[in-house]
Structures are given as structure tokens and as C-alpha cells.
Prior knowledge:
Phosphoribosyl-aminoimidazole Synthetase, Chain A, domain 2, single chain, binds magnesium ion
Amino acid sequence: MKEFNIIEDFFKAKSIQRKDVIIGIGDDAAVTRIPQGQALVTTTDTLISGVHFLADTAPHAIAQKAMAVNLSDLAAMGAEPAWISLSLSLPEVDESWLESFSEGLREHAIYYSVQLIGGDTVQGPLVITITAQGFVPFEQALTRSQAKPGDSVYVTGTLGDAGLGLQIAQKKCVLDVQLNKDYLLNRLNYPTPRLLVGTSIRRIASACIDVSDGLVSDIKHILKASECGATIHVDKLPMSQALKESVSSTQAIDYALSAGDDYELLFTVSEEQKGHLETTLASANVHATYIGQLNGCVGKLELRQADKPYEYNLKGYEHF
Ligand SMILES: [Mg+2]
């Protein structure tokens, strides 16, 4: 590689300055301060070109997605983000690529008040690893393991959009309506971490996870950790107008059930906390949809449509 200190040259000047960062980029390691009464929450996600994003994805989108998927994991813990560090593996030093990537990262850093506190670059295939850290008040972290039979299951936003977006990006699906196409591609390339929901439901939800691999896969993590089963009503799954207008209703349900990359939050709430949930979501001006109920059939996920079992065909969706 050319004589560049990529993190210093392309990222340092664009980094925001938080008060809790004592030493940021430029020394051997970063030194930060954790607020009193708060626990530190840490998560890491790696995105590999050709595996987690298409090789021709705009660098701006790659940066924002790499950050969003990490912030989504913090959201799922009920945490508020503070710092990230970045490990970049690049095939070559492409200055215009780095300009666009670092700009994407900077925009999200400002929007979410997150400071880049360090990083490393190596030469190799295009791989982006971000470690994100945030805070949650002691003993208020949301986990996967505290759900109980009888709890209601909710999900934020809409499901299946990124899955169809991927089919469009891969040219496996052609849409006539430009507005729908743009919307679905945007949901794939620019996911929104549900941070406000995560922090709002800290003392309300019994369990929480972000939907990264698809509803069916991800809810099973809660069922396993909490030793519960679930009944999900497929007619209640929240789906966007764009998804519903673009594919048949059966295909739309299959996308909503199995497609990944939506980064919505799936959470459970006990009967006693339901009223509290409604007022909290309303005052935070965020929305979540009730989709089903937990039960005591450990590890079993039952899908129902109207009053019948729903025949679910995984072949309907091809994972990238
Ligand atoms: Mg996750």
C-alpha cells in the first residue's frame, strides 16, 4: 500500500468529538469514560463484499450499512451508542472510494452522535468490520432470555423490504414502479437502526432481538434463550405498500417471514406491561405491530393464517 495512514488521513478530520473521549484516534489505543451507573455494551459486525453486500454497492451506502447493523445490535440491547472503531481491509488505496466511504460514516456519526475512536487498515479483499460501543443503565439491558409464555410479540417498521430490495439489486426481479424500486433498494442499502425504540422499551420489553437474518430465524433465538414457543399470525405481519404492490400476497408474506437485512426490532411484552408500552411508543412517536403470542411449547414456532396453520415455503426466498 502507498504511504497513507488511512484512518488518520481520511477519517480523523471527519470524526465528531464527544466529551467522554479522553484520547481518540492517533495514539496506540483510545481512552474513554463510561458514565456513572451505566454498563458498557459492545458489539462487532463484519461485512464482506460479495457476501453481505453486492460488490457494486456505493461506498457511501456500505459505510452507513456497516454502522447501522452495529447500532441495530446496540438498539436490540436497549443501549445508546457512543463510540465505534473501524477495521478496513481494502484491495487498494482508492482515494475517491475512501472519500465517499468516510463521508457516509461521518454523516451517520453526526446523526447518531457516535465518535470514531480508532481503527486499522490492511490490504486484502474488501471487508469492513465495525465494533460499536454504547451504554445502558445497570440491569436494564434488554436480552433474549427473559420472555415468558403469554407475552405478546411485537415488531417495529415493516418486514421483507430489504429481501425484495436484494432481488432488485441482483436484477432477479424487475419492477415497473420506480418509486417502489427506490424505496426497496433504499431499505436494503440504508437500514435504520431502531435506537429510539430500543431505549424506550428498556423497562417494558421482556426480550428483544434485531431482525437481521429474517423473522423466522431470529425469533427462534428468543424462543431458545427464553424456553418458550410462539404463534405468529402471518396476516398481522407489517408490510410496506411497496412490497405489497410488487409481489403476490403469498410472496410478500414469505419475504416478511424469511428475508433478512431489515434491522427492525422484534420484542416481547408481558400482559401487565402492554398499556405502558402503548403510552411509551406513542410519546416517543414510534410504532410497533403486534404479531403474535408466546406459549409454553419450547422452541416451537407456529405460523397461522386466519384460523389455519400457514404453509410456509422457504424456497420462495433465496438468501444472498
Ligand atoms: Mg443482532
